[in-house]
Amino acid sequence: MFEALRRYRRKRVLQTSALPDALWHEACGALPFLAIYSADALARLRDLVVLFLDAKSIVGAQGHVVTPIQRTIIAIQACVLVLNLDLALYDGFENVVVYPGEFVPGWEFEDEYGVVHRQDAPLAGEAMNRGPVILSWPDVADSANWDAAQMNLVIHEFAHKIDMHDGDANGCPPLPDDATRREWRRVMQRAYADFTARVDADEDTAIDPYAAESPGEFFAVLSEVFFAEPSLLVDEYPDVYRQFAGFYRQDPAARTA
Ligand SMILES: [Zn+2]
């Protein structure tokens, strides 16, 4: 019954909220990493984008006006992660908030000694647990082109959202069973230990050293690499690549080759 309702609703949204061709092509053109996707995959991605935009509000803050092309560029990148998964991984929050630049979140956190600190360093993006995804538009625009930026802000924040779907952003996304979770943890812990040792030794790593901040950041940063420069992840951490290919049900390195 619910499944039938869901299918009906999905069909209705796809019929009534189609994306104009010109807008779709312009947005895809701004995201060079999409070049490896087949026409069939892009058609499914386009449907997902329509459903995503129907379910979420992408709203401007501090006077920023979100244009249709900006909405589409953000939605495409959010949906690439769940292309072969379920949009329900993004349930539990409604808003994507877009700032005209980096923003100071101003939230407070307590350290292990009970001292309260205020987060007052400016951020380019943030994914709040059970809350919105917050993005700085200039950083979204700059990081749409991986070759130029070597980062992808939207993929990063939505990887955190997927990670948070079953609790905290701990670097372990929702996995189907205990055996898969054990194998995931084994591979990720080994790679994380190796990467943090390389960063601690001041090695000039090809992967953003920010990934050494925590297992959660390791998952988010490596998700960027998985989608935008998959061959780099294959070269650096082939075991992690295989875990990601299994989880995301995509094999972008094979398409690049
Ligand atoms: Zn992060």
Question: Can you characterise this structure?
Answer:
- This protein has helices spanning 2-16, 21-29, 39-55, 68-80, 137-143, 146-149, 153-164, 178-200, 215-228, 230-236, 238-248, 252-256, and strands at residues 57-60, 95-99, 108-110, 116-118, 125-127, 133-136.
- With 257 residues, it is α/β, with parallel strands linked by helices.
- The protein has two domains: 1-166, Cyclin A, domain 1 (Orthogonal Bundle); 170-257, Collagenase (Catalytic Domain), CATH 3.40.390.
- The chain is built from twelve helices and six strands.
- α9 packs across α10 and α10 (230-236) packs across α11.
- The longest helix has 23 residues, at 178-200.
- The mean pLDDT is 93.
- Zinc ion is lined by residues 156, 160, 217, 220.
Most strands sheet? 4 strands, mixed
Going by CATH, the architecture of the largest domain would be Orthogonal Bundle
Ions, cofactors and other ligands present here are:
zinc ion
First and last CA, distance: 43 Å
So how many helices?
Answer: 12
Poorly predicted runs are none
According to CATH, what is the topology of the largest domain? Cyclin A, domain 1
How many strand segments? 6
